[in-house]
């Protein structure tokens, strides 16, 4: 069973609540990295980075990071070595990002994407598997080299 994490700042707080409920109802094991209460003054790095580190360490397999636009969550998640995060707003990218690019953190904008579409995107993300063809592996090796060269 895939182990998941979810994190959100105030801009993603309500969408996180909805998705967490749906994921738990669907039987997923999911760790909530907060925010645990709505705080308009919280900062997305404080919520997203602990979850991204858990993905990078293999403690969880995939993460969902939410802020108001999804942009800040995506920017900071990608600062963690080994994270391949993308801001997702469409169904195709939600699964193709995993199939081709091994996306391990999906970012959403709580003020951009409605809960019904967000749930569809989450299901597409979780249902997808990295396809592992040679050209995808080759590209990811080059991505990983950037991590190493810029540390
Ligand atoms: C809200 O503070 C907003 O700036 C934040 O949630 C996020 O959208 C940043 O990218």
- Counting helices, strands and paired strands, the structural category is alpha/beta
Strand content: 15-25%
The total of helices stands at 6
Mean pLDDT: 97
End-to-end C-alpha gap: 32 Å
Query: Which CATH class?
Result: Alpha Beta
Q: Level of helix content?
A: 40-55%
Number of strands: 5
What is the succession of H and E elements? EHEHEHEHEHH
Oligomer: single chain
CATH superfamily: Sugar-phosphate isomerase, RpiB/LacA/LacB
Distinct ligands, ions and cofactors found in the model: D-ribose
**How is the largest sheet built, in terms of strand order?**
2-1-3-5-4
Which word captures the global form? globular
Looking at CATH, which topology would you report? Ribose 5-phosphate Isomerase B, Chain: A
Number of domains: 1
How large is the radius of gyration?
Answer: 14 Å
Poorly predicted runs of 5 or more residues: none
CATH architecture label:
3-Layer(aba) Sandwich
Largest sheet: 5 strands, parallel
Give a description of the structure.
- The chain has 151 residues and is α/β, with parallel strands linked by helices.
- The chain has one domain: Sugar-phosphate isomerase, RpiB/LacA/LacB (Ribose 5-phosphate Isomerase B, Chain: A, 3-Layer(aba) Sandwich), CATH 3.40.1400.10.
- Helix content is 48%, strand content 16%.
- The chain has helices spanning 13-25, 44-56, 71-77, 91-101, 115-127, 134-149, and strands spanning 3-8, 29-32, 62-67, 85-87, 105-109.
- A 5-stranded parallel sheet has the order 2-1-3-5-4, sandwiched between helices.
- Helix 4 (91-101) packs parallel to helix 5.
- The mean pLDDT is 97.
- Bound molecules: D-ribose (RB5).
